[in-house]
Amino acid sequence: MRLLITGATGYVGSRLVCALLRQGHEVVVTSRDTRKLDRFGWSSDVIKVAMDADDPISVKKAMSAAGQVDAIYYLVHAIGQADFANGDRDAARNVAEAARDAGVGRIIYLGGFVPGDDKLSSHLQSRADVAEGLVVEDGPELVWLRAAVIIGAGSTSFEIIRYMADRLPVIPEPGWITNEMDPISIRDAIHYLVAACESSLPPGEYDVSGPDHARYISILHEYISAVRFPRLRLPVFGVSTRLAGRLGGMFVPVPASLTEELVTSLNHSMTASEHSIRELVPPPEGGLTPMRDAVRASVESPYPRSVCDLHDLHHLADTDPAWAGGDWLRVKRRVGGTIGGTLRVSARIAGALLPART
Fold first, then answer.
1. In Å, how far from its chain's centre is CA 282?
2. Rounded to an integer, what distance in angstroms lies between the CA atom of residue 263 and that of residue 246?
3. Radius of gyration of the chain (CA)
4. Full DSSP string of 117-149
């Protein structure tokens, strides 16, 4: 199939490109600046198209440049940016309308669970609004995969947990941290996304999750167990998710606005309400990944490699954010960058001083 991916430079999108290429699909990748795609290992194997999802004219031009596309993966989000909720909804509508006009048959969207609470956080509400924006009259059919926390090195949620556990000798435990949550490993999320482009999966809404029914604090405990760093636990009261998000944004290297929005969403339980996709899509080889195995594989990630060369999807890619991987890796990267830059400058100076060969 010929598949177009928006958000391919993100954590999930960059890994999805590799998986689709391995399946033999032709992949079209969009970006505001296509030069930024050159750093990805799959860059030479995809078709690159410039597109700004916020600009309807840009989106229409991109659809024309992409040629006939069978399905679109919609993985764009602007969480953490000013007025991201309205921007996300409008961008989704731009893509859906252009896809309709271009004759695209299906849009696959990865969003979050939408709890039945009366008042949702801005992040969770925007995920639902995007799904609504992707449905237009006479437009493509929609497959909406809904997930909670995705576990893997480089995943924003996982990295926030990593830094909190690494940097705090005493772990504060407000009451909401025990809210229920059904996580999914990045390996299993990619498995379902790849299957979602096939016509054998009917359009509709599907909750995707791993085999474990857990709580938010469960991932933290599994991480502490995996790294073998003992931590004290301290129950605290009167700390809202919004306040915790603001404090966390000042404490971890993940962008502060992004941290605040994600932590604020922890006020809601995020559990799968149905598992119909498991009846329609066979499980990955070896079955769905237990939370403990996903966390341990993420912790054991070696130094970052090119995304399509990862031995395990839970490992860190060299195109994941610079803040991913924990403090030790950040120090290694800085030292390596400093040494590498010094050596390159020295080599240039030496080359200029040495006599030319005849």
1. 23
2. 9
3. 21
4. -SS--HHHHHHHHHHHHT--TT--EEEEEEESP
Domain with residues 2-335, CATH architecture: 3-Layer(aba) Sandwich (3.40)
Distance of CA 254 to the CA centre of its chain: 14
pTM above 0.70, yes or no: yes
Q: Are 159 and 322 in contact (CB under 8 A)?
A: no
Q: Are 162 and 156 in contact (CB under 8 A)?
A: no
CB-CB contact of 147 with 208 (8 Å): yes
Torsion sign over Cα 342, 344, 347, 348: negative
Q: Where are the domains of the chain?
A: 2-335
Asked if 139 and 96 touch (Cβ cutoff 8 Å), the reply is yes
The label of the residue with tokens 């933290």 reads 220
Structure-block tokens of residue 97: 């309308």
Q: Is 218 helix (H, G, I), strand (E, B) or coil?
A: helix
The Cα–Cα gap between 297 and 286 comes to: 15
- Token match 């480089």: residue? 154
**What is d(CA 198, CA 195) in angstroms, rounded to the nearest whole number?**
6
> What is the CA 162 to chain-centroid distance, rounded?
16
| Residue 192 structure tokens | 């379902």
Counted residue by residue, the chain has a size of 358
Q: Three-class SS of residue 187?
A: helix
CA distance 204 to 225: 38
- Count of alpha carbons within 13 angstroms of residue 138, beta-carbon side: 5
For the stretch 221-271, pLDDT in tens is 999 999 888 888 888 888 888 888 888 888 888 888 878 878 877 877 888
